[in-house]
Design brief:
Length: about 400
């Protein structure tokens, strides 16, 4: 039986491990974090194409009961004017729509399912290097141990070590010029329909919120930030700083943003975010990248998790059907690259719209309604309607099995 080592137990890693096991490859996942350390970040949306890809592997149930449906988004200007409403993707045939869920719940559910299916997940195992050896790939870990497997999958996120190993000259990830913050406010009246995202292009910053079942308000904020913060800079600014900063940004808008933030208990943190416009080498010497390691996208795309899941499923199909490992990786890249790079580009455009200056803001508010209409129709066709057929054979050099 062939063996695989997957680096990273975020979203792509556990799903890839399940797909590889189904393809007849015994898989171990090595994750840098210690078991108890749960993931930073508040919540994310999983779109219908991501849910469909989970179902392709027979694991759609993992997201049932841990999130809530969020079928649509309403865009407003800071004056409260409605600019447009788009769906988060046409429902799947059984009526399922995109869901919003806590990041930590999604990670845990995927890890638990992988372990239930016989995948070994080792925590506290940080990959530091890897190289091709006669009988496969030898991975070296920070704890001094080595493991050899037939192939290695880099599912180690935007700051991927595997990416550097595959291409030591790979450019670093690109800073996205808005920060990300988020939280959960207790039930309160914000005048919004449950499950519908309210997305506000405020005068100074973008703000999004959605009412969850039970009435609590899940929110995120995008303070503009032109230059990349120094390491540790954001963490050194405490909750009082961020509360004051958000108040300054949102007090000029006619939205419930300040009330929501004031009602949010606990600490507030900000994250810098990055994307990867085009990673030139996805694979080499039996090592391959998937998920954010290959194509990190701005959170504005709302697709990073779904694309990571799609990657994992397609990699499983390619390794199942294409006997030679590096040829299977080339087939995988052929199936995935143009699709994910289109999403990265769309995400970057959305982030820039969030950080617009005064003139661009006026134009945006004029043209956004038209753009949203067009974008909504286009996304329905190629983005959300994407379906992977697990049973369709992959032929090296062809793109069979996806629509
Ligand atoms: C603020 C924010 C909001 C977002 N919102 C959304 C959203 O609404 N919808 C959406 O679809 N996407 C969203 N995303 C993007 C989404 O989170 C990512 O696209 C997704 O997590 C990618 O999954 P991944 O498995 O490739 O990487 P990750 O989830 O980052 O997982 C990588 C894993 O690898 C581990 N690792 C790293 N280095 C090593 C190493 N050397 N050795 C071993 N393990 C290692 C890490 O600890 C981590 O567990 C958001 C991102 C951010 C930052």
């Amino acid at each position: 039986m062939r063996t695989a080592l997957v680096i990273g137990a975020g979203i792509a890693g556990p799903v890839a491990a399940i797909a590889l096991q189904r393809a007849g490859i015994a898989t171990t996942v090595c994750e840098a974090r210690a078991d108890a350390a749960d993931e930073a970040g508040a919540f994310l949306t999983l779109q219908v194409n991501g849910i469909d890809a989970l179902r392709t592997l027979g694991i759609g149930h993992v997201v049932e009961g841990i999130g809530f449906p969020t079928p649509s988004m309403r865009f407003r200007s800071g004056t409260g004017k409605l600019l447009g409403e788009v769906s988060t993707g046409a429902p799947l045939p059984d009526g399922t729509v995109g869901v919003t869920l806590r990041r930590s719940d999604l990670y845990r559910a995927l890890r638990d399912e992988a372990e239930r299916q016989g995948v070994t997940i080792e925590h506290g195992r940080r990959l530091v290097d890897a190289r091709r050896v006669a009988d496969g790939v030898r991975a070296e870990f920070a704890d001094g141990t080595t493991v050899t497997a037939d192939l290695l999958v880099g599912a180690d996120g935007v700051r991927s070590r595997v990416r550097q190993v595959i291409d030591p000259d790979a450019p670093p990830a690109r800073f996205v010029p808005v920060l990300n913050m988020g939280g959960f406010a207790p039930a309160m009246d914000v005048g919004a329909a449950p499950g519908t995202y309210e997305m506000v292009f405020g005068k100074r910053a973008f703000f999004g919120y959605v009412v969850a079942p039970g009435g609590s308000v899940w929110w995120f904020a995008n303070p503009p930030q032109r230059t990349e913060p120094a390491p540790g800079e954001l963490a050194s600014l405490g909750t009082a700083h961020w509360r004051a900063r958000l108040r300054e940004l949102y007090s000029v808008d006619r939205t419930p943003a300040c009330r929501i933030i004031d009602a949010t208990p606990g600490e507030l943190r900000a994250w810098a975010t990055y994307d990867l416009p085009s990673v030139r080498r996805w694979h080499r010497d039996r090592m391959v990248l998937i998920g954010d390691a290959a194509h990190a996208m701005s959170p504005s795309s709302g697709q990073g998790a779904s694309m990571a899941i799609e990657d994992a499923v397609e990699l499983g199909r390619c390794l199942r059907d294409v006997p030679e490992i590096d040829t299977a990786f080339a087939a995988f890249e052929g199936l995935r690259r143009s699709r994910v790079e289109q999403v990265v580009a769309d995400g970057a455009r959305s982030s820039n719209a969030k950080a617009a200056g005064p003139v661009a803001r006026v134009l945006r508010d004029l043209f956004l309604p038209i753009f949203l209409k067009r974008q909504g129709d286009r996304a329905a066709a190629w983005l959300h309607g994407h379906h992977i057929d697990w049973d369709a054979p992959v032929v090296a050099g062809a793109g069979a099995g996806s629509r």
